[in-house]
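Customer ticket, subject: "Can you confirm the structure for Hydrogenase maturation factor HypA?"

Message body: Hello, I'm evaluating your service for our small team and ran a test protein. I'd like someone to confirm that this is what the system normally returns, since I don't have a reference to compare against.
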Amino acid sequence: MHELSITQSIVDVCCERAGDRRVLSVRVLIGALTAVLPDAMLFCFDVAAEGTAAEGARLDIEHRAGAVHCRDCGADTELADYLLLCPCGSADVRVVAGNELTIVSMEVG
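Agent reply: Thanks for trying us out. I re-ran your input and got the following:
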């Protein structure tokens, strides 16, 4: 379960940035192509935050769909799954969205 180590890193960064203030909430953006399970991250957040300035904080997760640009036909396509193919059948695509894993914001108090 790599979500625990990812979540621990998020908690560490937020606590470092918060200084001596409490972290009340954290908002992250998770792309569909990252192979990070949002439910697992939610489960891990309370464990990772225990005993830190983020204990009791809320984790809000924003989802981003995967999308590719086809180098053959020029189409931009949102992906329904992990299969990196254009509807034209080409596999010559460039991922343009869905590989994000970013802390968007945090609220401190």
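A couple of notes from the result: The CA atoms of residues 32 and 65 lie 5 Å apart. The chain has a mean pLDDT of 95. Feel free to reply with more questions.
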